[in-house]
Specification:
Blueprint (H helix, E strand, L loop, with lengths): L1 E2 L3 H30 L5 E2 L2 E2 L9 H26 L5 H13 L2 H9 L4 H9 L7 H27 L3 H32 L4 H22 L7 E2 L6
Helix pairs in contact: 1-2, 1-3, 1-8, 2-3, 2-5, 2-6, 3-6, 4-6, 5-6
Length: 234
């Protein structure tokens, strides 16, 4: 077995990665609109509550926690696909799903004492002051570790060579974080340049999300070709 990394695979992976992160933001946005009674400010990677009336900490916690739930679902879907040792297509898709869910971004945020899960827990238990805030950060870190480490370990072990484990794996762990940040900043700057109103901002984001869905649908088969059998010598 060997790794077959092609430009079409990278394109498909990016469509999946950006789609997962956009669904993450939509999950935040929709719950925030539900608990605040109206749609708030929206950019490609930013959302706000719509009501000028303060939203309770419990409802804020719901809006914060629902975003990473999308990532967890994708991670564990990938973990399940990786378990199919009889199918290289399933294992390829599993690797792609795990890495596209941007687990390293979740881990970095949790280790720094932040991230959606930690913030959500602090909001949920905001009546507890002092040192217990650090306890919430620790619990948030444990949740992220439990959610991300098993799929990451299985992905690492499935990769066929030391080169793919120590070159492909770290690159696809860290590079999507930087590239996603770069693309989102560029799209947000473009949106602000046109000084659109809120409804137009949502239209931009809807079009972007639809384009990502289409891109993923038309290229998704490429994700199943990451791992292939070695060609036998003639």
């Amino acid at each position: 077995m060997k790794l077959k990394l092609t430009p079409s695979y990278i394109l498909s992976f990016l469509c999946l990665n950006w789609l997962v992160m956009e669904l993450h933001e939509w999950a935040h946005t929709m719950v925030a609109a539900l608990v605040s009674g109206r749609w708030g400010l929206r950019e490609f990677d930013h959302w706000e509550y719509g009501s000028i009336v303060p939203v309770s900490n419990g409802f804020q916690a719901m809006a914060m926690l629902v975003g990473p739930l999308i990532n967890f679902l994708v991670l564990w879907r990938g973990w399940k696909r990786l378990a199919n040792m009889e199918s290289l297509a399933d294992q390829s898709l599993g690797c792609s799903l795990v890495l596209a869910a941007m687990p390293m971004g979740l881990l970095i945020a949790a280790f720094s004492g932040g991230g959606d899960v930690t913030v959500g827990l602090k909001l949920l238990f905001s009546h507890i002051d002092g040192i217990y805030h650090h306890v919430m950060a620790g619990i948030g870190l444990v949740i992220i570790l439990v959610a991300t480490v098993p799929p990451l370990v299985r992905t690492f072990l499935v990769l066929p060579s030391w080169g793919s484990r120590f070159i492909f794996f770290p690159i696809f762990l860290f590079a999507p974080i930087w590239f996603h940040h770069l693309v989102m900043n560029s799209l947000n700057k473009l949106m602000r340049h046109f000084e659109a109103d809120q409804s137009m901002n949502y239209a931009w984001v809807v079009v972007w999300t639809f384009a990502l869905i289409c891109g993923w649908i038309f290229t998704r088969r490429r994700l199943e070709g990451l791992l292939v059998d070695r060609e036998l010598p003639l």
